[in-house]
Amino acid sequence: MITKEFDTIAAISTPLGEGAIGIVRMSGTNAVEIANKVFKGKDLNKVESHTLNYGHIEEDGRILDEVMIGVMKAPKTFTREDIIEINTHGGIAVMNEILQLLLRKGARMAEPGEFTKRAFLNGRVDLSQAEAVMDIIRAKTDQAMNIAVAQLDGSLSNLINNTRQEILETLAQVEVNIDYPEYDDVEEMTTKMLREKTAAFQKLLDNLLKTAKRGKILREGLKTAIIGRPNVGKSSLLNHLLREDKAIVTDIEGTTRDVIEEFVNINGVPLKLIDTAGIRETDDVVEKIGVERSRKALSEADLVLLVLNSGEKLTDQDLSLLELSQNSNRIIVLNKTDLPQEIETEKIAEFDPNYIEISVLKDENVDKIEEQINEMFFENAGIVEQDATYLSNTRHIALIEQALDSLKAVNDGLDMGLPVDLVQVDMTRTWEILGEITGDSAPDELITQLFSQFCLGK
Ligand SMILES: Nc1nc2c(c(=O)[nH]1)N(C=O)[C@@H](CNc1ccc(C(=O)N[C@@H](CCC(=O)O)C(=O)O)cc1)CN2
Ligand SMILES: Nc1nc2c(ncn2[C@@H]2O[C@H](COP(=O)(O)OP(=O)(O)OP(=O)(O)O)[C@@H](O)[C@H]2O)c(=O)[nH]1
Ligand SMILES: [K+]
Ligand SMILES: [Mg+2]
To answer: Which atom of ligand 1 is nearest to the CA of 133?
Structure first.
């Protein structure tokens, strides 16, 4: 039966700009036949699978382009279907004309993510691996890419599948105990076994969840807001950490007008540094806006670097920023220690005794900030372990949290002495929730929605 899912789809799979080469790709039963209609060169039906074939794309005797066509016959392909890859010259007009031609010859325009969706529907990858494909494309750092590549390789899938298998075995064991009680104390034994298994599953998923925060940071960068009143040296610090003059530095208050965002790598960990405009105290209205802006930067930041001027006494503005950032992950930085000290360090120690004294100007102690970031977020681990399984996808994180909730329900049930079959319901739920990660128990709408977030041609 030919369904909509398995007709022949086509799309431009390379970026729509000028490039040396562009690829127009087709997948489906008629891919080779359609390509043959427009290709002047070898008969593509007769060439060996996984070959690249030179020739021209023609329509009514008119040459559209000189090309190389890749022919990959099912099932050993990206989608498990026949795949044709037309390597054209990389220009929008060329790629577009060839795509239009294929559509006229019987292919259908692919939907975003549809090639990868087919790889999933045809069982070549599971859902978490398909999602990894997209994560690789979106990865901005080496670390983010490493996590996604590991996931594409099935690291998360294996962990989830093994856990689901163990849950099934546990449930089966419960059944056996109930149906064929060998001992008198079968109920007590079953409860004990369930308790132990649940604790083990909880520990495993808990550890996985702990990697999530790191995973997110590695993917998106640690959002680090540099805040402080005007002229304390925020932009100077940003430039120093970047080792590049990205932000304008002057002795004029209010030099930074717009928020500046830059990435920097600290021991393999990407920081997304955000330099904010200094908060002015002169004008009430502006000050209000400034505080509002700081509050926003604060609430969105994973880390706050609050910069104070060591050469001046604390101002009301400093104090309100100290209070405002009290509940954030914060490092208090006293800058300009090359100047005679005026700031009241005892007062600052009340907020946080681990403040750091630096001079950006004299390049003193700035690396202490990097050290402290490492301690706060990476327990000094520095570079991430290579083969650990990382949770980095928001959907996966939410599902692991749900799975943990239902394991807690199992525990609570056992504590309350509920009948074992009721406890089994929650254990089964855990199994189902985990299946949503791999797509084994994911509803169709979810799958449609997930793939629609992919880019066209993927
Ligand atoms: N030209 C081109 N380059 C590309 C892709 C593509 O589709 N086309 N890819 C698209 O993302 C990536 C490569 N991903 C791929 C993943 C699986 C298979 C594949 O054929 N798998 C077969 C095994 C093939 C074999 O062992 O020879 C399979 O799993 O059965 C191909 C490409 C990156 N580079
Ligand atoms: N003495 C001394 N001056 C510094 C130090 N760091 C920065 N400065 C100077 O302080 C002035 C203000 O620096 P900026 O980096 O522009 O300060 P800012 O906090 O970004 O200021 P706004 O963007 O206006 O809020 C400049 O003249 C810098 O050269 C330091 O460690 N010691
Ligand atoms: K300034
Ligand atoms: Mg500035």
So the answer is: 11
Give the integer Cα–Cα distance in Å for 48 and 388. 40
Instruction: Give the per-residue pLDDT at 220.
Output: 76
Query: What contacts 313, CB < 8 A, 6 or more positions away?
Result: 342, 343, 344
Q: Which one of 226, 227, 231 would you pick to mutate in the ligand 2 pocket, going by the greatest count of ligand atoms within 8 A of its CB?
A: 231
Please give the Cα distance from 98 to 65 (Å, whole number): 8
Contacts of 277 (CB under 8 A, 6+ apart): 254, 256, 257, 258, 259, 290, 293
| CA 386 / ligand 1 centre spacing (Å) | 24
The pLDDT score that the predictor gives to residue 390 is 82
* CA nearest ligand 1 atom 27, residue: 76
Between CA 22 and CA 89 the distance in angstroms is: 6
* Rounded distance between C-alpha atoms, residue 240 and residue 235, angstroms: 8
From residue 258, give the alpha-carbon distance in Å to each of 223, 274, 296, 345, 436.
17, 10, 14, 31, 42
**pLDDT the model gives residue 5:** 53
pLDDT at residue 178, rounded to an integer: 80
Query: For the stretch 224-256, what's the b/e string if a residue is b when 16 or more beta carbons lie within 10 angstroms of its beta carbon?
Result: bbbbbbbbbbbbbbbbbbbeeebbebeeeeebb
CA distances from 117 to 126, 158, 455 (A): 10, 20, 12
Atom index in ligand 1 nearest the CA of residue 83 equals 7
- The best mutation among 237, 244, 246, 249 to test binding of ligand 2, ranked by most ligand atoms within 8 Å of the C-beta, falls on 249
What ipTM was estimated for this complex?
0.63
Q: According to the model, what pLDDT value does residue 290 have?
A: 64
Ligand nearest the Cα of residue 76 is 1
The 10 Å Cβ neighbour count of residue 271 is: 23
Residue numbering of the annotated binding site: 25, 85, 124, 231-236, 250-256, 275-278, 458
Pocket of ligand 1 (CB under 6 A): 76-78, 85, 124
Give the Cα separation of 13 and 36 in Å (integer): 20
Which residues of the chain fall short of a pLDDT of 50? Answer: 1-4, 380-384
Answer yes or no: are the C-beta atoms of 224 and 305 closer than 8 Å. yes
In whole angstroms, how large is the CA radius of gyration of the chain?
29
* Nearest-ligand number for the alpha carbon of 233: 2
Q: Which amino acids are annotated as binding site for K(+), given as ranges?
A: 231, 250, 252, 255
